[in-house]
Amino acid sequence: MALLEVENLRTYFYTRGGIIRAVDNVSFSLEQGETMGIVGESGSGKSVTCYSILGLIPRPPGKIVSGCARFGGMDLLSCPKEQLRRVQGKRISMIFQDPMTSLNPYMRVSDQLVEPLLVHEKMRRSQALAKAIVSLEEVGIQDAASRIDLYPHQFSGGMRQRVMIAMALISRPEILIADEPTTSLDVTVQAQILELIKKRQKDLGTAVIFITHDLGVVASFCNYVNVMYAGRIVESAPTDEIFARPMHPYNAALQQSIPALHKKGQPLFTIPGLPPDLTIDFRGCPFASRCAHAADICKEQNPALKQMVSGHKTACIRFQRGEIAEVGLRNVVSAV
Amino acid sequence: MSAYLELENLTTHFPIYKGTILRRQTGSVKAVDGVNLQLRAGEILGLVGESGCGKSTLARTIMQLIPNTGGSVLLEGRNFSKITGRALRSERVNFQMIFQDPYASLNPRMTVYDTLAEAIQTRQQIGGKLLLGKVAKLMATVGLPANQMRRYPHEFSGGQRQRIAIARALAPEPKLIIADEPVSALDVSIQSQILNLIAKLCREMNLTMIFISHDISVVKYISDRIAVMYLGRLVELGPATEVVEKPLHPYTKALVSAIPVPDPQVERRRQRIILQGDPPSPMNPPAGCAFHPRCPYAIAACKAQRPELEQKEPNRLAACIRVGEI
Predict the structure, then answer these.
(1) Of B182, B212, B216, whose CA–CA distance to B198 is shortest?
(2) Are residues A159 and A60 in the same domain?
(3) A45 and A136, same domain (yes or no)
(4) Which domain holds residue B130?
(5) I need a labelling partner for B150 at 20 to 30 A (CA). Which of A52, A55, A280, A328 fits?
(6) Contact partners, residue B275, CB within 8 Å, separation at least 6
(7) Chain A residues with beta carbon closer than 8 angstroms to that of B259
(8) Among the three residues B173, B193, B218, which one is the final residue of a domain in this structure?
(9) Helices (H), chain A
(10) How far apart are the two ends of chain A, measured CA to CA in Å?
(11) Residue B233 located in a structural domain
């Protein structure tokens, strides 16, 4: 049985400008120890999906309209708050994009690190502190014992992200949700942090949900990928499949627009137009207006995610009907 | 080769003061520390490096938004860093800048027309129909419908705003454009549209450009040459493709190897050089080669002497004493 199973999740925001359908009918399941990527551009609903699971959506304006998230015999979306609290930061924890805004600037790192242990494990402070020092050492912070009493601003960006990781993993969660954890970091530091998450994941056997917009990070880090567009999952497959045999035109187009895959002087491939306005309750495929393969049916029928071959699902109606066999040719990859 | 823009030993240091009553200078941040560079007209130079390495300070120093503390900026042989006030402002129409965040760099209270008209008028005192026509033409150049010129920035998407920012930079008909991370804030699909636009404009208008980015794959695609910066100094300079595919300096090697490639099969085969630690503080850079504490190839001699940027191969410069050995 899957560790986490999300079904038909719909999260809407009720604003003055209308109802924003940020997440619209998303289903996926996460196996033990797996690393699952969620890729998409800004506004595609990847963060909102994960926030919904952990009960972090501000209500109002947000509302979980439908769906369930089964985890350890309970539904995270409908269970009582106290029950959810015992999961948050204990069995499922999260790292955010910007470690400066997600650490409390007024609290010493030590106080922030021991908090999950004091709350969830009811440990004594001295005991928790000893454990916190070990956890800092495990994420590669030297002199942890003397640096644990510093404030977040006394650490560099990469070090702060290490503190965040230590904090998220201190209670040995079953699932770690990483929301663009390396986006605000330099590439050399990004490589360090990715390596670190990989290593800690191996040590602890944690499953990871990795949210990113960077297909390169996905290729190096995840074993399964969900591609999101306009609040829906449009394709999901094992990483190799997502890259080798894209089955949704959006996924193919996204990959083709990466500059690394282009020769110099050759114009970059672009996707025409803009993502749809999510306040409009449109019919049909959300990508239809920008898609090179779109036909009349795409604008009329709502697509559903369907399995084509084992483990590989697509929400492209025309692909499902066998009308298009190949959604895009991939150029040869040169190093970088 | 006659250089259009020439930087001679350009230095920008920021003083650090201590004390409130007995205020005295206790040190300085060497943000740009002796940069030599020549750009010919029509060339696109990519400038890469980690955050804090001085890329943006270098850009702002060339623009004279920050005065340099040493060296000079020569524009077609004229010393741009010596002039001030009105003369500087009239010279500046030849240089324009595009910034990273199109949400912050456009005035939210000015319509697109106001923004572009003001920029056009820095070079030409025109008005009325003539000005209107110029604004419309500019908008068409960057791929925006001219009937939207009375709109405000918030009515546009991120990619469209960056187009407005590009139009504003083009308005005074500059010869040199410095683009400071112009696509970093944009999504992949929008990023490729803007890169195509920049490449096309440079070609058609024969613009000279310094393109700053932390993303080597973007820089490799768009630029003719790449300069790699570390802690205020250039460590490598050469033709874009060669620098990325066969880097000479160990820092460039590490930078290239840190970039994840969007291909899982390539990723599995790759050997990564993972640098330890963060870049050191530019307040007191390490003695000798500034990169030696993080460099996997460092030897004792690297600590003793600061390497100069010198020619190692035809057209290729690097600041490393061990280039031939590693």
Answers:
(1) B182
(2) yes
(3) yes
(4) 104-173
(5) A280
(6) A188, A191, A192, B254, B258, B294
(7) 187, 216, 336
(8) B173
(9) 46-53, 81-85, 99-102, 109-116, 125-138, 144-147, 157-169, 187-204, 215-221, 239-244, 249-256, 296-300, 317-320
(10) 39
(11) yes
Assess if residue B247 is contained within a domain. yes
Same domain, B168 and B199: no
Supply the DSSP string of B160-217, one letter for each residue. Answer: HHHHHHHHHHHTT--SEEEEESTTTTS-HHHHHHHHHHHHHHHHHHT-EEEEE-S-HH
The answer to ipTM > 0.90 is no
Which of B120, B147, B173 delimits the end of a domain?
Answer: B173
**CB pair distance less than 8 Å for A257 and B191:** yes
pLDDT tens per residue across all 326 residues of chain B: 568 899 999 999 988 888 777 788 888 888 898 999 999 999 999 999 888 888 889 999 998 888 889 899 988 888 888 888 888 888 888 889 998 888 888 999 999 999 999 999 988 888 889 999 999 999 999 988 888 889 999 888 888 899 999 999 999 999 899 999 898 878 888 888 889 999 989 989 999 999 998 888 889 989 999 999 999 999 999 999 999 999 999 999 998 888 888 888 888 888 888 887 777 777 788 888 999 988 888 888 899 888 999 898 999 999 999 888 87
Same domain, B79 and B135: no
**Three-class DSSP category at B17:** strand
Residues B97, B58: Cα–Cα separation, whole Å: 12
Task: Please give the structure tokens belonging to residue A94.
Answer: 């999260």
Contact B52, A157 (CB under 8 A): no
For residue A60, cis peptide bond before it (omega within 30 degrees of 0)? yes
Residues B36 and B129 in one domain: no
Structure-block tokens of residue A300: 């009329």
Looking at the structure, tell me whether residues A97 and A181 fall in a common domain. Answer: yes
In-domain check, residue B324:
no
User: Do both B67 and B133 map to the same domain?
Assistant: no
pTM over 0.80: yes
Residues A140 and A58 in one domain: yes
Alpha-carbon distance A192 to nearest alpha carbon in chain B (angstroms) = 6
End-to-end CA, chain B: 32
Angle ∠(A134,A32,A45) on CA atoms, nearest 5: 95
Are A146 and A108 in contact by the 8 Å Cβ rule? The answer is no
Q: Are residues B108 and B199 in the same domain?
A: no
Which residues are CB-neighbours of A75 under 8 A, at least 6 positions away? A68, A69
Co-location of B76 and B200 in the same domain: yes
Query: Chain B contacts of A221, Cβ < 8 Å?
Result: 260
**Nearest residue of B to residue A186, measured between CA atoms:** B50
The total of structural domains in chain A comes to: 2
B5 forms beta bridges with B39, B75
Q: Do B260 and B295 fall within a single domain?
A: yes
Contact of A57 with A11, CB cutoff 8 Å? yes
- Is the CB of A188 inside 8 Å of chain B's CB atoms? yes
- Sheet containing A207-212: order of strands: A92-95, A175-179, A207-212, A35-39, A224-229, A232-238, A312-314, A306-309
> Could you tell me if A146 lies within 8 Å of chain B, comparing CB atoms?
no
- Considering CB atoms only, which of A188, A219, A264 is closest to B241? A264
Answer yes or no: do A251 and A102 share one domain.
Answer: no
Q: Rounded to an integer, what distance in angstroms lies between the CA atom of residue B297 and that of residue B55?
A: 25
Domain range spanning residue A87? 4-222
- Distance (Å) from the alpha carbon of A79 to chain B's nearest alpha carbon: 36
Cross-chain residue pair B266–A219, CB shorter than 8 Å: yes
